[in-house]
Specification:
8-stranded mixed sheet, 51% helix, Immunoglobulin-like, alpha+beta, 5-stranded antiparallel sheet
Length: 532
């Protein structure tokens, strides 16, 4: 497709950047007209300098007439989209048209200006008027924006700002990728692998869409890189199905989503072979996929799944922004900066938001792995690990710590008399009491059944015995309420042990000592503290 800009643009000292003007263009569906014929043709159609014609097959010619009334003689004309296969500038020199080639068919180091966007140097003397013709053709959307810079403004405001904005974007996504990869390696949950892959391919998608891939010298592969579009959808669907727990709530819809994944996977090699028409097929299927995901999110919200609310809110903003961008490229709505680029901001917020949610899920999952599900206290495994670390520090710094092994007296009688629900209620209330009367640095764990264990850092056995007696008395004074409305009293027996600094001492031996002392407290009549 070829467009011609035909506009009288006045260049003066007050405008270092000219980006709002009207262009004239001529469409050549045959792609047979040459510059000599074009120069003899009258341009009657006009279009704003920021425009979109959608997907067209021919060539478009633009004609632009510039009059320089400034003190500057050097200017830059840039087309702010990288995906034109051909975008050539024609200027007259000694009555002959000279062509400067750009577009995807021309490597960056062979272009007049080293830029992923087709860009040309213009030399116009003060008071001089010059006419330029631009030939454009694209397999993709014929959308873009022509901007004229004073050369010094282009060097400071043009490309540097463009590069800086995208570097911030890619840098943020790189951090997100590493973060989610770390979460996946840590807890081996597939949702983190899916989101890592989704973010990675989305970053590549933006890389291709922005033309940054051209700086790596792969201009000839730019078209093939559009395989990232179906790959993005593969991992977005996998992530979404896992996030919304579709397999649990809606097994049939889960199978439909997996069928979508299979279709996108099949499109990857097809898009690599030839973009047209397969990228359009992928975009069409994507519309259906987004609608399906939104429906599933709404259905899941009705089941009371809170995370689905966040998913729906984030995705509606994201999908709406993608819809604006797609509509611009299709030529259905005006090409404005908001319509064209808001999806980049929305995708950034989407990726950051989901990463924060996944981080919270990770925190909850990690905490759940360390906690007893009934009492909320640390579980036996976590206690063993933290106690072993304390033992190493104890040996290094020659500071003793103590262990309290606590057991509820005659707890079986409570379960037999009042039922296991009452037993659970007592365990929970006792756990809360232990947290209430313990120090911040003490580690409290449910050791199993009705047994609890507490690690007292930097505490010798004498002080630990006093702590144990205080706990024993506090528990004896407790009034425990159960579901039947009755109030119960319980007592506990406590065994106390202390770390020593022998090389062969293990945490298991210290715990065993406290367990032996607990047994002795029971033997002494219960509701006792025993230590050696």
């Amino acid at each position: 497709m070829t467009y011609i800009l035909s506009a009288n643009v006045i260049l003066n000292n007050t405008a270092k950047k000219v980006d709002h003007f009207t262009l004239s263009y001529l469409y050549d569906p045959s792609q047979l007209l040459d510059i000599e014929q074009i120069a003899q043709t009258k341009f009657t159609n006009t279009v704003p300098s920021q425009f979109s014609f959608g997907y067209v097959d021919g060539t478009t010619w633009y004609k632009i007439t510039l009059k320089n009334q400034s003190d500057t003689e050097e200017f830059v004309l840039s087309f702010l989209e990288p995906f034109s296969d051909v975008l050539n500038l024609y200027r007259q020199k000694d009555g002959i048209f000279v062509k400067s080639k750009s577009g995807l068919d021309v490597p960056l180091d062979e272009r007049e200006v080293y830029d992923s966007n087709p860009t040309f140097n213009l030399h116009i003397k003060k008071g001089q008027t010059k006419t330029y013709y631009i030939e454009a053709h694209s397999k993709f959307s014929s959308a873009g924006e022509f901007v004229i810079y004073a050369k010094d403004a282009y060097a400071t405001q043009g490309k540097p700002l463009f590069i800086g904005a995208y570097m911030f974007y890619f840098g943020s996504l790189f951090i997100v990728i590493l973060f989610n990869l770390f979460l996946f390696i840590t807890i081996k949950e597939r949702i983190y692998a899916y989101y890592t892959a989704y973010t990675f391919f989305y970053a590549l998608f933006i890389l291709v869409l922005s033309g940054f891939d051209l700086y790596f010298g792969y201009e000839s592969l730019h078209e093939h890189f559009h395989i990232v579009t179906p790959l993005v959808m593969v991992f977005l669907v996998l992530f979404s199905s896992y996030f919304l727990q579709t397999k649990v709530f809606y097994p049939k819809l889960f199978k439909l989503l997996m069928a979508n994944v299979l279709v996108y996977a099949m499109l990857v090699p097809l898009v690599f072979i030839t973009v047209d028409p397969w990228i359009k097929v992928a975009n069409t299927i994507t519309t259906f996929t987004f609608i399906l995901l939104i429906i599933i999110a709404i259905m899941t919200i009705k089941k009371g799944f809170t995370l689905a609310k966040y998913y729906l809110f984030i995705m509606l903003i994201y999908i709406s922004s993608l819809g604006l961008m797609s509509s611009v490229l299709m030529g259905d709505i005006p090409n404005t900066h908001f319509n064209r680029y808001i999806f980049i901001l929305a995708s950034y917020l989407e990726i950051i938001s989901f990463s924060l949610i996944l981080a919270k899920i990770y925190s909850q999952t990690k905490s759940a792995a360390e906690r007893d599900p009934l009492t909320g206290l640390y579980n036996r495994r976590y206690f063993s690990n933290i106690a072993d670390k304390n033992l190493k520090l104890s040996k290094k710094h020659k500071q003793a710590f103590s262990i309290l092994m606590i057991d509820i007296d005659l707890f079986k009688n409570v379960n037999d008399t009042y039922g296991h629900q009452a037993g659970d209620e007592i365990l929970i209330q006792l756990s809360h009491k232990l947290i209430e009367i313990s120090r911040v640095q003490d580690i409290i764990s449910r050791h199993g059944g009705e047994e609890f264990i507490i690690l007292l850092p930097n505490t010798n056995i004498a002080k630990a015995t006093k702590v144990a007696n205080n706990i024993r008395q506090e528990v004896e004074d407790m009034q425990l309420n159960i579901h039947s409305g009755e109030t119960l009293n319980i007592t506990v027996s406590i065994g106390v042990s202390q770390s020593i600094f022998g090389d062969n001492l293990s945490i298991e031996k210290i715990i065993l000592d406290s367990d032996i002392n607990l047994y002795q407290a029971k033997e002494n009549g219960r509701n006792q503290v025993y230590s050696v």
